[in-house]
Design a protein that fits this description.
The chain has 10 helices and 15 strands. By secondary structure, the chain is of the alpha+beta class. The chain has one domain: Sandwich (Jelly Rolls). The strands form 3 sheets. Strands 2-3-11-8-13-6-5-4 form an 8-stranded mixed sheet. Strand 9 and strand 10 (269-272) form a beta hairpin. Helix 4 crosses helix 7 (179-204) and helix 5 (109-123) packs across helix 7 (179-204). Bound molecules: N-oxalylglycine and nickel (II) ion.
């Protein structure tokens, strides 16, 4: 490792903190932001991923990789022909990609921008101020930390995060000022969009429109807001912002501060995701794969990092109610097509998946029968 004199002290700290004492039960974890700002010129070995370049990376602009687009305004339009078209686009996107861009979603641009400002403001608080939010347990409603699960992982991710439980009970950091009010409004709009998408997907599955919303007790849905900070990384080609994973809920909504960083796995290749202006990015997640008994695939994706740019993503995981037992819908189970997944409550699923670190594979694979 080559070190500039300025970075020596910081590097020494992280080597100790991450490899010996780090855990989500420890308050000693050095943040990636402070590590990045310390002037490192090479990557600490505990961040070096071995298989980063095993799977080829394709550009999303290639003819065969045009990522699907769903027009939300058509889905909620009174015109049944337009709605049918949107439902078909939605179903096809979930089957073939597990990913789509949602356009004309109705969330005002300035609300999304204010959210992003709030996230930046949060990460720019001093480490001392942010300490208050360092969660120690998976079910702490506000948890600020680094990587994924430093207690169990061997290879760390180049990422700091803020994770907040925002529904059915709304929690939020009280700093920076105004952030919480903005978030309340933004997250409520996301929930309304999710309900409509799940209505469309129920119809696409040949079920009555409220099927998934009812089966997941959506009025008390568990919603988690995650802000990810990916600071500049000295050797981005060796590190990862987030290991390949699929999300735990039903549908995940993502927006980002700069384009480029998210990659989605499609037909055995990584496809770079470059979102059109003002579009939301939506991933199908594990509970939807389980409920549909495998018809909709939970999207596997990862985040890569940059050498001279900071990227922020705002991610909202929208799941069933925590008490809900999730199993393949009886409509998709038959003698020839038996249930392909173990049934557990979403709470248990969340707990188990959050204890994983994804440097040892996908969690959903362990739920397959
Ligand atoms: C996530 C996630 C990707 C990104 O937080 O689950 O996949 O680009 N994030 O930040
Ligand atoms: Ni994800």
């Amino acid at each position: 490792m080559t070190l500039s004199p300025k970075s020596m002290a910081a590097t020494f700290t992280i080597a100790t903190d991450f490899t010996e004492h780090s855990s989500i039960h420890s308050s000693k974890v050095t943040t990636i932001k402070s590590l990045s700002e310390s002037g490192l010129t090479s990557l600490p070995p505990s961040f070096a991923c071995k298989n980063l370049h095993k799977i080829p990376v394709l550009d999303s602009s290639s003819e065969y990789n045009t990522l699907p687009v769903v027009d939300f305004s058509l889905l909620v339009s009174g015109n049944s022909e337009q709605r049918d078209k949107a439902i078909q686009d939605l179903g096809q996107a979930c089957e073939e990609w597990g990913f789509f861009f949602l356009i004309n979603h109705g969330i005002p641009e300035n609300l999304i921008n204010s959210m992003m400002e709030g996230v930046k403001g949060f990460f720019n608080l001093s480490e001392e101020e942010k300490k208050e939010f360092q969660g120690k347990h998976i079910f702490d409603p506000i948890r600020y930390g680094s990587s994924i699960n430093t207690a169990v992982e061997k290879i760390h991710c180049w990422r700091d995060f803020l994770k907040v439980f925002v529904h059915p009970e709304f929690h939020f950091p009280h700093k920076p000022s105004g952030f919480s009010d903005t978030a309340f409004e933004y997250l409520k709009m996301i929930r309304e969009i999710i309900r409509e998408l799940l209505r469309g997907l129920s119809e696409n599955l040949g079920l009555e429109p409220n099927y998934i919303n009812k089966a997941t007790t959506i009025e008390s849905s568990f919603q988690v807001f995650v802000a990810n900070l990916y600071p500049p990384c000295p050797e981005p080609e060796l590190a990862v912002g987030l290991h390949p994973h699929s999300d735990h809920g039903l549908l995940t909504v993502l927006t980002e501060s700069i384009s480029g960083g998210l990659q989605t796995l499609h037909n055995g290749k990584w496809v770079k995701v470059n979102a059109p202006p003002n579009a939301l990015m939506v991933n199908t997640a594990d509970q939807l794969e389980i409920m549909s008994n495998g018809k909709y695939k939970s999207n596997v994706h990862r985040a890569v990092v940059h050498s001279n740019a900071t990227r922020i993503s705002m991610v909202t995981a929208n799941g069933p109610s925590l008490d809900q037992l999730i199993s393949p819908a009886t409509e998709f189970v038959s003698d020839t097509h038996p249930p392909a997944y173990t049934s557990v409550t979403y709470k248990k699923y969340y707990e188990l998946s959050q204890s994983n670190s994804f440097d040892n594979g996908l969690f959903l694979d362990r739920m397959r029968i």
